[in-house]
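Supplementary Note 2. Why include the ligand at all?

Several targets in our set were suspected to adopt different conformations when bound, so apo predictions alone were not considered sufficient. For every target with a known small-molecule partner we therefore ran a joint prediction. The input for nickel (II) ion is given below.
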Amino acid sequence: MSVPAPLPLRIEPLTREAFAPFGDVIETAGAAAFPINAGTTTRYHDLVQVELAGEAPRTLVNLFEGKAWHAPIAIRMLERHPLGSQAFYPVDGGRMLIVVAPPGELDESKIRAFISAPDQGVNYARGTWHHPLLCLQHPGRFLVVDRGGEGHNCDEQLLKQPLSVLNLR
Ligand SMILES: NC(=O)N[C@@H](O)C(=O)O
Ligand code: NI
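The joint prediction is reproduced in token form.
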């Protein structure tokens, strides 16, 4: 069976409200914040829900160095982590193309796309379908917090209807 031609995917502004079905937005704007260390530091507190499930779960702190992707970007698959959340935050202002769908059985009609600002990251909730890291414009380095431990924690699924992001503005 031939694969259909990619359909264009619209980009939405990344806000906490818009991203709520998929996880959390990591940003200082609107965050609970308070001074610590005798006022020399501001703590932006409790920004995401870290989820760790399955056997012998533990938190992994990683650095990802993503190559630069340029438009048009083909979206042919999504993945999910059934045993834990996964957070990405740019340590050098790299922007990401974020393509997601709600947890559960993949419903391709519910796929949505966002582009992060240089001071935004995301935390994919446990089971949220997402495309692996898509760093835009220049190679980027991201702090990634996700789940380690026993068991299978990455399901991949090819899209019946491939998508394409034509414009990264
Ligand atoms: N495989 C891996 O560690 N990274 C992916 O899960 C990803 O979302 O980039
Ligand atoms: Ni992932």
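The mean pLDDT is 96. Residues 16-19 form the longest helix (4 residues). Comparable summaries for the other entries are listed in the accompanying table.
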